[in-house]
Specification:
single chain; alpha+beta; Arc Repressor Mutant, subunit A; three-stranded antiparallel β-sheet; 6 strands
């Protein structure tokens, strides 16, 4: 397992107050509850981040998601691990995902 994969055995789940929407050619995460100010927290997803988002389902560990990325995309293991960790950290900071106990 790459050294950059900090949460390899951790499982996360999506915040139930967030929905994934396809608008034109973009995938966007949209808050469905809360104040209007939350609309400033929209996340636009590219193909890779959408792939990850769809796997944050409380059933897969970060290590399993990393393996899925390597099987689906042409990317080096260390780069995939760094990008996965960065994306997970951004989602955590925006309260879009939660760690599964």
């Amino acid at each position: 397992m790459p050294k950059h994969l900090e949460h390899q055995k951790t499982k996360f789940t999506q915040n139930a107050d967030i929905v994934r929407r396809a608008i034109a050619d973009e995938i966007i995460l949209v808050p469905i509850r809360g104040e209007l100010a939350d609309m400033q927290r929209l996340f636009a997803l590219d193909e890779t981040s959408d792939f990850i988002w769809q796997r944050l389902d409380r059933n897969r560990t970060v290590g399993e998601i990393h393996s899925a990325i390597l099987n689906h995309f042409d990317v080096a293991a260390d780069q995939a691990a760094m990008d996965l960790n960065d994306f997970i950290q951004a989602l955590l900071e925006a309260d879009l995902i939660h760690e599964v106990a």
